[in-house]
TrEMBL record:
NCBIfam families: cyt_tran_rel. GO terms for biological process: FAD biosynthetic process; FMN biosynthetic process; riboflavin biosynthetic process. This is FAD synthase. InterPro entries: Cyt_trans-like, FAD_synthase, Riboflavin_kinase, Rossmann-like_a/b/a_fold. It comes from Salibacterium qingdaonense. Belongs to the RibF family.
Amino acid sequence: MRTIHVQHPIKKTIQDNSEPCVMALGFFDGVHLGHQEIIKTAKTIADQKNLKLAVMTFFPHPSTVIKKGNQITRYITPLSVKERMFEKLGVDLLYVTAFDMNVAAVPHKEFVDDYLHGLKCRHAVAGFDYTYGFKGKGNMAQLNLDADGRFGVTTVEKLEKYHQKVSSTLLRQLITTGRVEHIPSYLGSRYEIQGILCRQGHQYRIYIDNDYLLPSPGSYEVTLKSGTLITKGMCEVKSGGAPGELTLHTFYDLPFDDDTPVQMLWENFIADYDMDAFHAQLPFDELELSM
């Protein structure tokens, strides 16, 4: 997979060197089951048309620039993790657009002209609630009009599980309330954080990307994986803890060497560690979320 970083105004050399593609559109935080359906749909069309499969995403999250409502500064999948997931899903080209006030001000028609048609998009695929352009005035119905016959458009309808819309917002609620055991139903797998494991006395620390969204303060059962090695442990999340560090206690002798890259899968909430602005595990309608 080739990653192309794009800034506004998009360079003509990037457009000239682009390849005809089917393009999946979205922020894709978490790359959950709904996101995977969008990318799989785009891949099917790309295979049928013998075109490259492309994804266009943004970084940082638009809420940090537009500053309306909750600002998302921590991610279920930081950009580097998202890249690896896209590659596993068969994506050939990843366009990462730097989201700033200049991009936010681009009218919807100009966005389509420059960022889709300009990058040789031959077919665009996005979720039913995808919006684009200045103040989000572009939606999937508008995309058909803005395409003006230059490329096809496919809308992927809402995916629901247990009467809940599968979304990054739902996953954020589950994570920030410690309800990690419910995540696989919507994500398709356990919530996973990648980091470096280091021994410190009789306990361990995992050093992670500071962009990760962490569960609410408390103790959690986790599974650690490195290659074929797997073990269980308890991870503590502390309010006000050092950024990018987590404390871990293992249930068994740890089979990993020091400074080992590991995947940590969040299994279950065990107990509150520190009561913060909200109590972990409360129902969604009783929560007061602070992003």
